[in-house]
């Protein structure tokens, strides 16, 4: 009898612990008007990623369809969301969300390409960046770049400009004289 009580107590404790591992999240969908190229889609993704609680890795921009989806750990104020876009020439509308509870999963992907470039030699690598952009545009790959904030446009232009395919790019400003670029499949 004692064994059954202990087992029941362990089951209850495990259930309570498992319940606490479930995270509340908000899955958002919206229409975006004004996007014409991959750089526009990057700008939309970047703006949404700045909002508190938004998981930057979940921001998915459909350039051709004019839609965006993202997940946030907290409810996003739609007025703040609209204000992000009004200054940049885009408009967001038909914002909907669904509140869910799900287990938090941590994924650690290894990059298929991991390279470092000296900031002062960045202009020598524009062809390489364009080739990486071509690869990412033809697959579902994503790119993460860590570099000085002043280098953002310089690095993203060969990757994104003029493309009609969305490339998932995340730029992280860094205090370094190195550009760290990673490509994930």
Largest sheet: 4 strands, antiparallel
Structural class: alpha+beta
Distance between the termini: 54 Å
SSE series: HEHEEHEEHEHEE
| CATH T-level topology of the largest domain | Alpha-Beta Plaits
Number of domains: 2
Key descriptive features of the protein:
185 residues, alpha+beta, Alpha-Beta Plaits, four-stranded antiparallel beta sheet, four-stranded mixed beta sheet, 5 helices, 34% helix, 32% strand, globular, disordered N terminus
What would your notes on this structure say?
- With 185 residues, the chain is of the alpha+beta class.
- The protein has two domains: 22-103, Alpha-Beta Plaits, CATH 3.30.70.100; 113-184, no CATH class.
- The protein is built from five helices and eight strands; from the N terminus they run αβαββαββαβαββ.
- It has helices at 2-20, 38-49, 78-86, 126-138, 152-160, and strands at residues 22-33, 60-62, 67-72, 91-103, 113-118, 142-147, 168-173, 178-184.
- The strands form two sheets. The protein has a four-stranded antiparallel β-sheet with strand order 2-3-1-4.
- β6 (142-147), α5 (152-160) and β7 (168-173) form a beta-alpha-beta unit.
- α4 crosses α5.
- It is globular and about 45 Å long.
- The model is unreliable at 3-21 (pLDDT under 50).
